[in-house]
Give the backbone structure.
Amino acid sequence: MVSLLVNRLSLATVGDIQSRADIIAVVACAAVILNAINAQEIVSRDREPVSLMGYSLNETQISKLVTGVSRPTISWACTALISNTQARSIIIVSNGMYIAKAGIICKSCLNDDVMNMQIMPILRKSIVDGSELYLPDLQVF
């Protein structure tokens, strides 16, 4: 490929035959590179499952601050997310306070109805930007 580039730059005028030969040479080089990549044995590995440590809630715990029509909606949303996604723990936060929690939660979250939360960097970025954030996926290479 490099020799084709040097050849093309060194010639003042290029004829039709030279252009066709260069195209054929580029295609041949690409075929050799693709064949070499295809010959590599690349095997994907499955992730090892990680079990969550904590306490499993039988039902969604909703704060007493939430009243009215919002309670069944929050309960339905938590149940739907846990049963239909890979999420196993859900905590809904509003104004720095836990509003609802479901799934597997930590021991310190178990008995508190509403508790002030410590805002860590990932949550802070999500609050400021309003964007979705995902925890990094740790893999062993």
User: Anything to note?
Assistant: The mean pLDDT is 77. Residues 2-39 form one domain. DSSP finds four helices and four strands in the chain.
